[in-house]
Write a structure and sequence with these properties.
Blueprint (H helix, E strand, L loop, with lengths): L8 H37 L1 H14 L26 E5 L2 E5 L11 E6 L8 E4 L9
Antiparallel strand pairs: 1-2, 2-3, 3-4
Length: about 140
């Protein structure tokens, strides 16, 4: 009697189950990576505000963190969040970036940079709702 050639149904089903599992894991990892890459846009948008606050601390030596607000001492003005614009608020040395109003998972997500002290060396603490999602 000849030995049958090819795959049995059990082998084929096992292969499909393993293949499906691998594809699911790869797609989930790719989705997380693409969301993080998209969120980096907000982190990069915070750089001019961070640099402006640091410049004010180095050159004007403010007496308190409460002096460091958007639109004063050379710090760019605050921006209201909108459908196509990320929001920025600088208040008391805390920079709060808010993702624009859209239909993505990032809608309303925040990224904050908080000054530890108004004296050099300048140290920042990160925070916001992005921390719990591992985006910042």
């Amino acid at each position: 009697m000849k030995k049958p050639l090819g795959f049995t149904l059990l082998k084929l089903m096992t292969f499909l189950a393993i293949f499906t599992l691998i594809i699911t894991i790869v797609l989930a990892a790719f989705q997380n990576h693409s969301i993080r890459a998209e969120f980096s846009e907000l982190v990069i948008a915070a750089i001019p505000y961070k640099e402006a606050v640091e410049r004010v601390i180095r050159t004007r030596n403010p007496s308190a963190l409460s002096d460091l607000d958007g639109g004063s001492l050379g710090i760019p003005a605050n921006v209201t969040v909108g459908e196509t614009v990320h929001g920025v608020v600088v208040a008391d040395g805390v920079i709060t970036m808010t993702w624009q109003h859209d239909s993505t998972i990032l809608h309303g997500m925040t990224y904050t940079l908080t000054l530890d002290d108004a004296e050099p060396p300048i140290q920042w603490s990160r925070g916001g709702s992005c921390v719990g999602k591992h985006l910042c």
